[in-house]
Amino acid sequence: MTPDHRTRLEQAAVVCLLGVVTVVPFSIAAAEILLALAIVGWLAVIAAGRERLQVPAICWPLAAYAAWTLVSVVFSPDRVASLSDSKELVLLLIVPMVYRLAAGRRASTVLEVLISVGAVSAAIGVVQYGILNYDHLGQRPQGTLGHYMTYSGTLMLIIGATTARLLFRTEKRAWPALVMPALLVALALTFTRSAWVGACAAIALLFVLKDFRLLAALPVLAALFFALAPQAVTGRVYSMFDLNDPTNRDRVAMMRAGAHMIRDHPIAGVGPDMVIRLYPQYRDASAVEPINPHLHNVPLQIAAERGLPALAAWLWFLVVLARDLWRAFRSGPVPWLPAAGLAALVSMLSAGLFEYNFGDSEFLVLFLVLVTLPFAAGRARPAAAGA
Hints:
With 387 residues, this protein is mainly α. The protein is 69% helix and 0% strand. It has helices at residues 3-23, 28-48, 59-74, 79-85, 94-101, 106-130, 148-168, 174-188, 193-210, 217-228, 231-239, 246-264, 275-282, 298-306, 308-331, 336-351, 361-377. The two termini are 17 Å apart.
């Protein structure tokens, strides 16, 4: 294959990657099709150029996590169902794929596209709340996605990226500054407390990274929120601290059930997608709901479903990711990208204490893209790849 043909092949793969980022906040089906094309294109580019496969350090703990997930499938009471649920492991290929295709200046382009897409997604949620009566817990704004938790999770990640863009990139701030209010309003109107916690943690972290004195703005922002937000939204905030709130009590009961699952199955877990089947067996007496699809806590869910070795691999991933993002932030060529990656990490962890966001396909796609872009930005593309 000639250099020109390889260049066109790589450009097509990059277009597919941009397509993934563009459509994932709206349709996971379309995103998965484009992702498959991007992965095929990435592999074809490597093969055509006879390149040596290069990956960031976070790939190794992710590989260990994937390998132990397959071990847990072997010991699952329903191997077929667990294997089917484990197909999301393919999404982990996003990391080496983005690392290669978004190298150099392309990394910034990918994130700029994501911020612009976030504006459209936020506008849809605001319209749903204000016009279509998606204004109560029984019917919350969900954009074009299937669930309000997924929608709020993607908004949370985009808010972190947009805040990083505003704080750490000095030029062309007008567009992200216009987008930010819509993102914050849309997230507030989802009534999703875990995403609120994650977004607040991400913004606080970015303020500290930029200038510790910016934390003084948080009480002012909180006051504006309580002054302007609808009563239903502020009431949802107060419910976070209500120990008698049914969802709060149920989450405590889920923690007890998860602890019992880990005690009985510490090595391989109960198996992917088996928590929902075994939950009635482990359900705590204080539980509110008779059944839950997952345990609403990322580390607890991983340990219960896939075993403690999988949890150890996931924690290894977090440590390596935090270390390398911090190094990239301190010395990398584009500091706003690692800042966005750190915001994504902190928001995922904070919200993940109350929601199993790491198991949500739409969320995981955006998360993996965001945390890989800083490493891709510091990597030069092979000379044969063209512009």
